[in-house]
């Protein structure tokens, strides 16, 4: 059973990655060359995950078969979700070579979170969105939210209606609110969670948060690429 390293790299082209293999003693020199010289006219390659496995030739061939429809002909480049490939490789039995400061379990968990976050974000453009709504018994709630790196960040200075509900997300329970004003940014993982931070109860954030043109986030949710 020949041992070798299977790796995945990002490229300067969004959505285009490289999956390759190398010998046990050649990883650093291979990464050095690719990161400085590029591959098949594609530059900006950066190592993202690498694992030493048994039967690495057969395993790389299997990956080629699995992702054949996403492969750039005659190359080791694929139009794939990087985090999906990291999830798969980190589930292999073997010695993780890169990154060296995290365990395979940590890498797998982080890649899973990123994929879920990206799925939740859909095609929402990064930027600032707004929520203006009257809450019965309180008045007008005015809030701003920034969408960035797959997160929905409720910005400090937003109005937060009081709430006596127990079933609220932890981010609302832990939010620093003084005189109904949010004192620091709150990071959420969905627009509805972000909405509950300021409204104080469950709401459909896809319809409540709006862009500069007063269009709801929902218009981006199923927008084709």
UniProtKB/TrEMBL annotation:
It comes from the Bacteria. Residues 11-92 form the Bacteriophage T5 Orf172 DNA-binding domain. This is Bacteriophage T5 Orf172 DNA-binding domain-containing protein. The lineage of its organism: Bacteria, Bacillati, Bacillota, Erysipelotrichia, Erysipelotrichales.
């Amino acid at each position: 059973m020949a041992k070798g390293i299977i790796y995945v790299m990002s490229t300067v082209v969004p959505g285009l990655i490289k999956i390759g293999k190398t010998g046990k003693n050649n990883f650093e020199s291979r990464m050095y060359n690719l990161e400085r010289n590029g591959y098949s006219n594609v530059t900006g390659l950066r190592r993202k995950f690498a694992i030493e496995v048994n039967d690495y030739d057969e395993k790389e061939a299997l990956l080629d078969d699995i992702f054949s429809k996403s492969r750039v002909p005659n190359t080791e480049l694929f139009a794939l979700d990087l985090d999906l490939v990291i999830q798969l490789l980190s589930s292999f039995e073997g010695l993780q070579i890169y990154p060296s400061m995290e365990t395979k379990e940590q890498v797998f968990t982080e890649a899973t979170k990123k994929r879920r976050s990206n799925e939740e974000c859909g095609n929402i453009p990064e930027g600032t969105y707004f929520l203006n709504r009257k809450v019965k018994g309180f008045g007008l709630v005015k809030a701003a939210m920034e969408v960035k790196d797959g997160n929905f960040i409720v910005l400090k200075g937003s109005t937060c209606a009081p709430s006596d509900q127990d079933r609220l997300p932890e981010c609302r329970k832990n939010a620093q609110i003084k005189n109904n004003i949010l004192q620091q940014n709150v990071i959420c993982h969905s627009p509805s969670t972000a909405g509950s931070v300021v409204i104080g109860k469950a709401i459909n954030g896809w319809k409540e948060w709006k862009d500069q043109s007063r269009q709801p986030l929902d218009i981006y949710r199923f927008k084709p690429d």
